[in-house]
Specification:
The chain is of the alpha+beta class. It has four domains: 134 residues, no CATH class; 57 residues, SH3 type barrels; 108 residues, Alpha-Beta Plaits (2-Layer Sandwich), CATH 3.30.70; 39 residues. It contains 17 helices and eight strands. The strands form two sheets. The protein has a five-stranded antiparallel beta sheet, with no helix packed on it. Strands 6-8-7 form a three-stranded antiparallel beta sheet. The chain is rod-shaped, with a radius of gyration of 36 Å. It starts with a helix and ends with a helix. The relative contact order is 0.07.
């Protein structure tokens, strides 16, 4: 049969060979035949015959449990070959069934040893319910958590999750009944109790992967003392910048209409272009024309509240790739350019004083 299965075009039947399913079911025949043959053996008393029969029956029950376990393994391997297995893993459910199978086999074996009905044995366990619940507390919690995780699709193999409380930050490589294994970015393995994923909070980056984009959220700190209004000659200079020509022309018309409306000649009352506002427009148009920035997602350049460390100009955009290396390169290239460009707008970048700054101050 194994030779026949190897020559088929199907892949699921290879699991039958891998788990030895047919061999495990073949082992059921000998103890079963011997059990029914006891009654034909001469010179055996009833008690001796029953004892030997219970031994053969116990062997049959053990082999049957192993055969069913192998069948579950075969089904799991075959199931994992289909695409649905990635979104709906069944490993936890297989483990739950195996635990139930193990308990049933143990109960039947004990009933055969003491020669009592399994039903009578189960009724006697009622008084030990509290002890059983205490012993299997983690298993029961994991059982409920596994059902919720699988049914709601909270975590699956291949997801990138962050769970600081368990020092986990990496890809999920295995989801079991009791534990979820995460391979961190430094190649270490974190083991998370399954029920922790329900009781504690964690971040799943699957949404980022599925969207095909990844967010950049970073600020450039501008020295507040370098912010100023623009003079006419400066406007003409910036008008030659391809990314600012349309902006300046449009803004001049808007400001001219506003200033004529209020009828004032005082600079305090007039609306005027600033170097920080023009720089912000430049950054926006630069990102708007960047091939690696998703134009279908949020694209935002905004000022944040100054808090003693300059004026933050925040870049909030999404790259068109989720690949980590490509993402970091895109982000670095963007900020390399913008940090170097700020000086063309007479803007100074803010940073904490360094040793070199103190040396200059001391020398002066």
């Amino acid at each position: 049969i194994h030779k026949l299965l190897k020559h088929t075009d199907q892949t699921w039947d290879d699991a039958i060979i891998e788990t030895g399913l047919l061999k495990s079911f073949a082992k059921l025949a000998p103890p079963l035949v011997l059990f029914y043959s006891i009654s034909y053996a001469p010179y055996l008393s009833d008690d001796t015959g029953q004892l030997i029969g219970n031994i053969f029956l116990s062997i049959f029950v053990i082999y049957l449990g192993l055969a069913i376990s192998n069948f579950l393994n075969t089904f799991h391997i075959a199931y994992n070959q289909y695409p649905i297995a990635k979104d709906r893993p069944i490993k936890s459910f297989i483990q739950i069934i195996k635990i139930a199978l193990f308990l049933i086999v143990v109960i039947i074996l004990i009933s055969l040893i003491i020669n009592k009905s399994p039903v009578l044995l189960l009724s006697g366990l009622g008084a030990l319910t509290a002890v059983i619940l205490l012993i299997f507390r983690d298993t029961l919690l994991s059982l409920v958590a596994s059902i919720q995780i699988t049914s709601l699709g909270l975590v699956k193999v291949g997801d990138w999750i962050e769970m600081p409380s368990c020092n986990a930050d990496g890809d999920v490589i295995d989801v079991q009944l009791h534990t979820v294994k995460v391979q961190n970015w430094d190649k270490t393995i974190s083991t998370i109790p399954t029920h922790k994923l329900i009781s504690d909070s964690f971040k799943n980056w699957r949404g980022m992967s599925d969207s095909g984009t990844r967010r950049i959220k970073r600020s450039i700190l501008i020295d507040l003392n370098s912010i100023k209004f623009l003079e006419h000659q400066e406007l003409e200079k910036y008008r030659t910048f391809a990314l600012l020509t349309e902006y300046i022309n449009s803004k001049e018309k808007e400001l001219k209409a506003f200033n004529e409306k209020i009828g004032s000649t005082s600079n305090v009352n007039l609306r005027r272009l600033t170097n920080i506002g023009t720089f912000r427009a430049y950054v926006f148009n630069y990102l708007k024309n960047h091939d690696d920035i998703s134009q279908d997602s949020t694209l935002l350049v905004r000022q944040l509240k100054p808090e003693g460390k300059g004026l933050p100009i925040e870049i909030y955009v999404f790259t068109s790739t989720t690949n980590w290396t490509e993402y970091e390169n895109i982000q670095s290239d963007i900020f390399d350019h913008l940090l170097a460009t700020a000086r063309y707008f007479d803007l100074r970048l803010f940073q904490e004083p360094t040793g070199k700054d103190f040396q200059k101050l001391q020398s002066n």
